[in-house]
Amino acid sequence: MSISSEHKPLGKQVTGSLHTLSPIVELNVGGEIYTTTLSTLKKHPGSKLAEMFTGQPKLRTDSEGRFFIDRPGTCFKYILEYLRSNQVPTQCIQDVYKEALFYDIEPLIKQLEDSPQIFGELVARKQFLARVPNYSENIELMIRIARAEAVASRRSSVIVCVVRTEEDVARCQDALNSLDMDKKSVVKFGPWKAAPSISDLLDCIQMDVEAKGYKISFQPHVAEKGFRFKSHDFFYKFLFTWW
């Protein structure tokens, strides 16, 4: 007696229509194994996840015939929880948000963006940093300078000049001209028109450099005696520790 196509081993029918598959689906997501239903995966028709399981199969299978998705597997359980019960995750919010964006599950994306973690990052911090001229480029410049100074050293330092207002720009330039250092190696941030303070910006710099895997700290840069400006009004030393 022949077995109907809907009861054949799941995931091996990569040449057939998904309409002929069993409603129970086995997935291998980045090495994590999940079992769910086609209706759950296709709950939001406009999503990329639903598109993967609509019409002709668009995924490869693993050696066991399970559909394979090359994404972080541990986060997928939160995606499934949302699809099954509309439960918005309260853990690993940043990682789940990335996966929701990848799978293009718009209702989950919007709900996550209302969470304090994502709201704070996207609406508060990112919007502030967007008003700091050349912020991302300056972060990369800091890292390049630090790496260039790291040869045969345990630590290397980068001097950062931070100006909060337009009025501070000229004062900072006068102070920079008085400093006994290579002025090309000083990275300048600002000015900006937003509420966050200099200390807020310094915290952002440290946060974003550390997010790239570097170990850093910072402190006010104190110039030599006789310096006619309070250098710590503008200048800070960021210390990279390599080992």
Automatic annotation (TrEMBL):
Q: Which InterPro entries match?
A: BTB/POZ_dom, KCTD7/14_C, SKP1/BTB/POZ_sf, T1-type_BTB
Source organism superkingdom: Eukaryota
BTB domain boundaries? 23-120
Which Gene Ontology BP annotations are present?
Answer: protein homooligomerization
Q: Where are the transmembrane segments?
A: none
Q: What CDD domains would the database entry show?
A: BTB_POZ_KCTD14
Q: What is this protein identified as?
A: KCD14 protein
**Gene source species:** Chunga burmeisteri (Black-legged seriema)
Origin organism lineage: Eukaryota, Metazoa, Chordata, Craniata, Vertebrata
- What would be the name of the gene that encodes this protein? Kctd14
